[in-house]
Structure formats: structure tokens, C-alpha cells
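## retry 2 of 3
previous attempt timed out at serialization; input unchanged, resubmitting
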Amino acid sequence: MKLKKLAQNTVFITSKNNKTILIDPGKYNIGCGLFDISNFPTADILIITHKHADHYDLDIVKSIVSRSNPIILTNTEIKDFLLKENIESKILNVGDTVNILDYSITGIRTDHVVRDENIINFGVVVSSNGVSFYHTSDTRYIEPSLLPEITRNKCVLVPISNRGVVMGIDDALVFCCELTPPIVIPMHYDSPKDLGRVNPEEFKMKGQSIGLEVMILKFGQEIEL
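## retry succeeded, writing output
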């Protein structure tokens, strides 16, 4: 399974049989020499974890649907938004596991609160051909003992930008140490609010000092899991 990191929390996955998943096609992937709406990557499966624009840009979604008609997995709130656009989707609840094409996809709880609103959201563990990763989506620190066993010993993508809405660097380090992942990939530091304020190299340095294998992926960089 190949994993390509795009902007913020956006991730593009390719299975051994070339079936693809796109997670959280958000607005920070557009412009400044990145993608535009018309050439945004399409996928066989589209996962939208929650409503925030850095994870869900409706124009991007409409373009993807018009070009590839993916299976869409999302939450109840996004499903209602998409129905207004005559776009069908399936709900992935926290704790549910669905098997689609080459993939097993499990919804994982999050703790994402913004301006006192508890955001409807989920993370995912994605598995294919014996390889798995855990994409936390946006979440503050959750005690790993409260998460299912499936989140452990997986490559983990974790937010590091803090601002009270997701984990900061120190919380993310504690979180990852307890999950014992083979690789940690930081994310959620591409926002204009975070550029110059959050340094993934600091996360990498601190992570390596406590025995974590941290990999910073540039936009468009792909690795084999």
C-alpha cells in the first residue's frame, strides 16, 4: 500500500491492486502551485471525516464525483450536505468496520471541539493486504487506552498544530509513544495560521529523542507502507 501526503490532513492511498482512497480533500490543496479544482486527484473511495473546510471543500468533492463517481464514506452531517447536491454517500460511524474493494476501513473516535462546538468527526484505520495505518483526523489528546486495539502498532498520522482544537507537539508525542507505531507522520500544520508557528522538524527532533521513527512528508511525497 502506498501513502501520499498532500496538504494539511489530506492523504491519497493506493492499494497493491491500484484501488485508491482519498481522505479529506480540503481547501489548502488548491492554489499556490498545488492543485486546482479540475485536476484534483480522483479516487475509488472518498473519505470525508468532518465539515471543516481544510478537510471538506464542496467544489473539490463535486469535481471528484463528476470525474470518478467514488464511493463516499462520511458522517451524518456531511451526508446531509451532500444530499442537497444530489450526491450519495454512506455513513461510517465510530466503531464500524466496512470492507470496500481492497480495503477494510474502521471509524475511530475523536475529540474535536472548536469554539465550544463538539464537531461530528471520526478518524480511520485503513487496512489492505496485511498493511494498515491510522489517520487520526482532527483530535485533541485521547488516552490511547480508550481507543480500540486496532489503532496500535500502525503507522499513525497525527496533528501537531494545537490551538486548543487538535493535539500539539507534546501531546502528539505522548499519544504516539503509547500507540507504539513503526512510523509517525505529522500533519495539520499547513494552515496560514500555523505556518511559521508550528515546526514539524521540532516534532521530528523530539520524537527521535524518545525513540519514535518520525517521517515528514512534503506535499505530494509518497511512501510504501
